[in-house]
Amino acid sequence: MDQKNLLLSNSNTVDGLLSQDYIVGVIYDKVKDVYLMINYRQRGGLWFPFSERRFNETSFQTIKRLIDPIIIHDSEQIQLVKICSTKTLPFKSHDVLFYTIIPKSSTIMNIWLNGKIDGIDFERQLNTLQDNAIVWLTTIQLKHISKLSRLLGMEPLSLNKQFKDIFHSTIKSNNINTAVIFEEVKIPRIESTSKTSHSNAAETLLMSAKFTSTIQEKLYEEYHNAVLPSDYLNLETFKQLILRKGLDSQHISDYFRAFDSTQRNYLTYLDYLLGLAALDPNTQHGGVPAEQRCRYIFRYYNINNNQRMTFDEFKLMIKDIHKNKGENLSNDTLNDEALEMFRSFGLRSLDQTLSLMDFLSGVGQLRFRGTSVLFRLNMPISELFQRSLLSVTPNTSVIPSSTSNIITSNRTLSTKSMTRRSGTQQQISNIASDESHPYEIATHIIKVKKTGVVVNITSLYDLDVAGAISGSTALFFDDDNGKFDRINSQNCFNQRTHANEMLHGLRYFERGAKEGYSTECFIMNKNFLSQLEDERIEAETRLEKMCRDMEAVYQSKVTEKLQKLDEGKQNVLKTQETYRLNIQQEEERIHLKREAFERARRE
């Protein structure tokens, strides 16, 4: 075999450092339509044979080291063809190269197949396969195993057609210089393209979770190092990643089902990224992010994964809502409340099921509450990364939240450097200036009556767009509405803000109701209220007149439109009459011509 065409460079240079590639060997028998797969038990799945290329080792040497313990071969009796190259970014440190191992005769393939397992009994042998066990699987068997999430990735199925084309064309033409199928060179990253609107739901979800480009790159690096050499995440590898986020190991399959929006039993990086954004405590439970979170919550509790939630599944959701609120309900109380909330969706029988769209509609119309406490991490992803970074630097101490730097997409602000715009310094009693206090900026405004009934909930993000937030807070916000950072509220809100000035003005009208004020002040307030009543009556009169004027304008417009329609109708009738006369005249001419023709024929 000509090794000049098989040798690659020993390593890739990344920022002056050497990084080794992953070499994947694809062995396929076109007669029996089977692939050679190896069981990687620790990673919970079957996949092609692969190995990391060692330092100062060529690709051909890596392939030889990889297949020596697997099959009996002679280097002169096989062909090695590079069929796929996944180029990666510098921080990923690895490229994944796929090579087909093609025997030059069918006899060699028969020798490889002899003594090996021709297939497996999915029910009995799949869970008992030893580590590094060799199996030959057809495409149909691979599809069955894929549904059980027992492949490391979907490449054996997603690249199946390309692999077969390469095998057939290579054997037919006996040519080993096959072109590369594809090269992947870009990190999947979602960025905002507009400061006032979001282009899609995924972008809105990431912005609400405050997933900056830096966080997305760190998550991609974590994802990539876990799935190598595949590009997909199976259940076992997902378990290893998600346990680092502090979630309960008993519900790993539920989280995996929630992340798997396409129901293919494998996750891409985008699935993983959006799922973590939905889990992040920073993600607001309102608007578009709330709808996306509710979709994840529905899949989490929809154990049957059929887009229809049963009453038992719904009752588990009610139980978790109270559990997260610190309430422990008895079975009877839980069943009664679950039944009541289940019927609020218009379902009368326990045999009926709740659809996803009905669930989203019920939550959006506030007929069902409590979902905001579900499907949450214990701490934000950014804080998890910060803690992991601090844990590897022993000389670094944890900085309190009130004095830590605020990282935004464009700059870094220190809360210590923030100054009030007020002309007077507000004195806070019993608080030293050098002490730190965990102030956080609010994200919602909630109006509550004295009875405890919630009147209205307004998101601070919406207020910022509408210009309802004081200008004194603008210096502390990023230009992008979705990327609010935690800041010291005592430096942001002061006595000179519009909100406080409005409150100060409203308190003026409460003076007459308080004890200790003079009768003159009370009379003045009473006269002022009478003036307000007169202004109200005048406003009503103006509004009534404006409505009558608008009615007259509307009536004239409608009359004008009706006249035009009537004219158009008359024109159509005239046109029809003209056509009818023309047709009649034409028929008479044809009749005369026919009579003349008959007379001529008789003559």
Low-confidence spans: 1-19, 176-186, 192-198, 392-437, 461-495
Secondary structure class reads: alpha+beta
The CATH class assignment of the largest domain is Mainly Alpha
Mean pLDDT: 72
Question: For the terminal residues, how far apart are their CA atoms?
Answer: 98 Å
CATH architectural name of the largest domain: Orthogonal Bundle
Strand order of the largest sheet: 7-3-9-8
CATH fold name of the largest domain, please?
Answer: Recoverin, domain 1
| Rounded radius of gyration (Å) | 36 Å
Sheet with the most strands? 4 strands, mixed
Structural domain count: 4
3D architecture notes:
The structure is a single chain. The N and C termini lie far apart (98 Å). Residues 1-19, 176-186, 192-198, 392-437 and 461-495 have low confidence and may be disordered. With 603 residues, the protein is an alpha+beta fold. It has 4 domains: 3-173, Nucleoside Triphosphate Pyrophosphohydrolase (Alpha-Beta Complex); 201-373, Recoverin, domain 1; 408-418 and 436-517, no CATH class; 532-603. 22% of the residues are buried. It is flat, with a radius of gyration of 36 Å. The chain has helices at residues 59-67, 106-113, 139-147, 155-158, 160-173, 201-208, 213-227, 235-243, 252-259, 269-279, 287-301, 311-324, 331-343, 356-364, 381-391, 460-466, 489-492, 498-507, 519-602; strands at 12-14, 17-19, 22-26, 28-29, 34-40, 45-47, 50-52, 78-86, 96-103, 134-138, 308-309, 354-355, 405-407, 412-414, 444-448, 454-459. The strands form 6 sheets. It has a 4-stranded mixed β-sheet, with helices on both faces. Strands 4, 5, 6 and 10 form a 4-stranded antiparallel β-sheet that branches. The protein has a two-stranded antiparallel ribbon with strand order 1-2.
